[in-house]
Here is the input.
Amino acid sequence: MTQTHHESGICPVANAAKLFGDHWTLLLIRDLASGCRRFQQLQMSTGISPGVLSSRLRMLEQAGLITRKQFPEIPPRVEYSLTEKGRAAVPLIDQLRIYGEQWLADTECPAEESVKEMEEAEGATASTAG
Here is the structure.
């Protein structure tokens, strides 16, 4: 049986969807597009749980989309910012915003329920994997 482009990992659309396909990645890039942010600022602006936020920030750093800068201070201070690769994704976020304003403004967005459901599902996945 032969693999499709999607399955073999050479489809650029599939690769981008894999990287940007979750709710939190898009919101974190949106927030970081306006400059450096600290962990608590990102948590407050998105409503993401601390555990999921830590996981997403690590993933984005490993993917080369953000940098993490730790300052030698007490108490410790860490700031996150977009890399060049991360800034290249900002126009994608802008286009999603434009699409949402034009085509989804009148539809009810079940964001609050889906956020809770996603966090619960991710928590269940993490507990079964570990």
